[in-house]
Design goal:
about 30% helix; about 30% strand; single chain; about 450 residues; 12 helices
Amino acid sequence: MKKVITFLLIICIVFSDLSITGVFAAEAGKNEAATATDASTDTVKVLFVGNSFTLRNNLPRLFKGIAKADGQKVKVKKIAYGGYRLNRYSSKNTRAGKEFRNMMKEKWDYVVLQGYSSEFLEYYNSGAYHSLRKLVNMVKKNGAEPILYMTWARQDGISYSNRSGDFSFNRDEMTLAVSDTYEKLGNEFGLKVAPVGQNFLRCRDEYPDINLYNKDRKHPKFAGSYLAACTIYETIFDRSALNNGYHNTDEKNIGIGKKKASKLQALSDIRMKVDQDVVYMKPGSAIGINAQTYASPDNELYNEKYINRDIISYTSLTTDICIVNETTGVITALAPGKGYIRAMSKSGLSAIITVFVKSRETINLNVTPNMVSERSLYSDNLLRWTGQCGYKYDIYRSIETESHYVHIATVCSDYFIDQRKIRGRKYFYKITASKINGADGYPSESNVSSVSIKKKIRYGR
């Protein structure tokens, strides 16, 4: 009998060990598949939507060449017509709009959206914003991730008039204005932005010997499209194009030599990250943000000029709503509204932080015990509040203390039943409310409401 028990014990241990090993192996497999730095074994499908800034020099082909040289399998297609704005693609009545919708019947991993060079300056309030929103919604419905292709400034800048007034920007000013707008849109829609426009201006400062512009001082030469392709590749795959082998060799002629390609690769390899793209504050509060630049360890440009020296400065674009310390990045909220902070590096990269300032609105929360039965050790607690359509409610609970709250549920209704609470114990609750489709203000919070469950009634005494 002892032998049988021992044998069964060994079987249990072996199967338990195999089961645990299988769990860890499966988890490791998931982690490995999710690692962005691993070369993809699956074909990644990328659709480019734009105009001549996408058409010239066949930007999608350059992107594919860079990806292939880095071990990535990609399939690319493009819909691009010279001079087109995004409204031609968002409309269901245009040839381009119908073509885009046909493309959306096919599954994509990424869709790169490129607007007219001054579209988000001249036409922001007269259609550009709404066109982008429609396209983003269609792309997300497809299951793909939209990528914003930030365009560059014209060499001679731009002057234009619209119902907001008369405007004139030189090249530097236009770059900053376009960049700020793309970054704001990226924050609003939760999208990655490929900072091509920033890298065009940085190239002038770092490598004045490289001309990215055609004779019309607007469209890109081959080098300009190559820089754009490197920037978009790094944005999508979070992999550097530094030391990429897609350039002229003895065996093939790509259209750009190794020396020039290496400079543009080094330029696009320097990137900026911010710890918070969107922050929520209430008037009078303060919060710190942190932006920094980074590059590959063997990036000579970055190592020689910027490593540990790429100073970040912070500027408020909406000083009536929030201000910021120029060097520390500490934001102080002043008044309710939507504000913007720009982080700018010495190397010429920038990012926008969106700041929502809103006073907390108190939600009236009531909690009452709902007895399961008089003989039960447990009770259900019924939480009720006044709800709003389009909001979700996060419920937090604490036991015998008014701190250390733990999130227990998220609901879209105006009530919640917290089941099987022990009688004789006191429970504290609070809830927060925020919009389902992305918060556009400081989340509301309820009052703290507590309830004591009556002790179990003892019968037969």
